[in-house]
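$ run holo --ligand "ribose-5-phosphate" --emit tokens
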Amino acid sequence: MMKLIACNANRPLAEAIADHLDCPLTDAEVKNFADNEIFVRINENVRGEDVFVIQSTSRPANDNLMELLICIDALRRASAARITAVIPYFGYARQDRKTDGRTPISAKLVANLISASGADRVLTMDLHAGQIQGFFDIPTDNMVALPVMVDDVRRRMDKDNLMVVSPDVGGVVRARSFAKRIGADLAIVDKRRPEAGKSEVMNIIGDVSGRRCILVDDICDSGGTLCNAAAALKEEGAISVSAYITHGVLSNNAVGRIDKSEMDELVICNTILPSDEDVKSKKLRVLSVAPLLGEAIRRIANNESVSKLFD
Ligand code: R5P
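-- output --
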């Protein structure tokens, strides 16, 4: 039997996954003591069950991570047969290598913590770098939001004149695969980061003049990458600039910045719950990955192929 448990990072997504699977969320308390320590109690028997804990480690990253770890610990001690950590957005992923002397590889540490808490497997989506999968020594399925985005483009945009744009060299593989799926050309922004959190456009590789551009990326954090890319693309003659982003981290009034920028539309997925303020923006649209994650959960529970979902 399958059990779905939601921590607090993104309850609407967990509920949508539960709806898709027609499997109600298991009754569980995930709350804070007065001193902010986290307490979890599973109010139903889970002995011998196949349990899926749904929690993005988005902002507040440390609280959400601790909720996940403590919930997994509670399930392990309650004799769940198998525990899958469903982490639609895996935070700390950008700290995946030593960028300087005496700095951590936090993504590896977080992967170790999740395994040590008792998770048997991980289901996640659009990891910042595919190789983070290898930081886990337990089976890890890294879903891609691409099919949901491609479907949206096909339904809403005329195919003519589209140009998919990678906002940096690191995102070329993702953008190329997007371009191939919608039959569009590919351009690349040569982005530099003079310091963490700041980005600068150096060059655009490809002729975007007269094109309707679609920027594709895994994360929009401060929005700097997208706003700078949009300004540079319009400067080079792009007719319009939209962006399809898996994880709307949206720190420091990113949506306010995008509202005032050359970006025409920002489309994010609901791996992270957008704030009430952000969803008021006329430029923001949110796509649901609940059916995709729900289907992956169903397949894991039935020992069916998950990679078939990418075909
Ligand atoms: C970086 O490599 C990522 O793919 C994103 O481009 C980056 O995290 C976006 O950050 P920001 O919105 O702050 O420019």
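-- notes --
The CA atoms of residues 152 and 287 lie 8 Å apart.
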